[in-house]
Design goal:
alpha/beta, Rossmann fold, six-stranded mixed β-sheet, 9 helices, 10 strands, 36% helix, binds adenosine-5'-triphosphate, binds magnesium ion, ATP-binding, Phosphonate C-P lyase system protein PhnK, P-loop_NTPase, lyase, nucleotide-binding
């Protein structure tokens, strides 16, 4: 990990009218670090993630991102075009529902290839070969390359969404309940796959999850949210093995269903 943060988050709040989405969230994220955001339903996890990924504009607060040239840029001051460029190249966003992150009516190969074209690849043969390699990496048989994702199972769609997001070597990937809609056995394999890719590629990841087991398996650090606030944060093993806040203790002892 480098000695300079990739993301500086300061005082991010989002209100929906008078309702709190999330409030006064501050943290740093380092390159290669995996941060889990956990908390019960309605605690503000998705709101925060969407603010960080600039899919939502916060009501107040500031997020700075370290560009590849080393300069910090304020995400909320960027033009829409600059933000779209970041999303296409430097970032990934893995949706809980793969249909939200895939184009369901173009082929699997095109879903992956499209991201390569967005970063300037023009050679059809190379794009197809890279797409095919990535399908293999996410355990989709290469002879399915011309099939549309609507012909895939839920687990395959999620793996395809992951390939589409990782093919351009992003530096930061946002994930909202990436295993949420899947059977338990499919979840376990997908998590293993994600864990391997994240460590091989040295990605920084912010992952929202209900599931403390997902946080345990994937993340270095975690933040616990309640009522829109971060009530506890720290190294994942510390938070799960020795939670300080009573609410986190309840979560960990599974008395609360999240
Ligand atoms: N578009 C919206 N308009 C109004 N209120 C919203 C909107 N989106 C979220 N909220 C409110 O913001 C709060 C946080 O919601 P959010 O979706 O961020 O929670 P979450 O932790 O992701 O929950 P879940 O685990 O159920 O996905 C909730 O009170 C919710 O009702
Ligand atoms: Mg959510």
């Amino acid at each position: 990990m480098s000695d300079q943060p990739l993301l500086n988050v300061r005082g991010v709040s989002k209100f929906y009218g008078s309702r709190i989405g999330c409030t006064d969230v501050s943290f740093d994220l380092w390159p290669g670090e995996v941060l889990a955001i956990v908390g019960e339903s309605g605690s503000g996890k998705t709101t925060l993630l969407n603010c960080l990924a600039t899919r939502l504009m916060p009501t107040t607060g500031c997020v700075q991102y370290r560009m590849r040239d080393g300069n910090l840029r304020d995400l909320y001051q960027m033009s829409d075009a600059e933000r779209r460029f970041l999303m296409r190249t430097d970032w990934g966003f893995v949706h809980q529902n793969p249909a939200d992150g895939l184009r369901m009516t173009v082929s699997a190969g095109a879903n992956v290839g499209e991201r390569l074209m967005a970063v300037g690849n023009r050679h059809y043969g190379n794009i197809r070969n890279t797409a095919s390699d990535w399908l293999e990496r996410v355990e989709i048989a290469q002879d399915r390359i011309d099939d549309q994702p609507r012909a895939f199972s839920g687990g395959m769609r999620q793996r395809l969404q992951i390939a589409r997001n990782l093919v351009t070597s992003p530096r930061l990937v946002f994930m909202d309940e990436p295993t949420g809609g899947l059977d338990v056995s499919v979840q376990a394999r997908l998590l293993d796959l994600v864990r391997g890719l994240v460590s091989d590629l040295g990605l920084a990841v912010i992952v929202v999850t209900h599931d403390l087991a997902v946080a345990r398996l994937l993340s270095h650090r975690m933040m616990v949210m309640k009522g829109g606030r971060v009530i506890e944060q720290g190294l994942t093993d510390r938070v799960l093995d020795d939670p300080r806040e009573p609410y986190t203790q309840l979560l960990v002892s599974s008395i609360l269903q999240v």
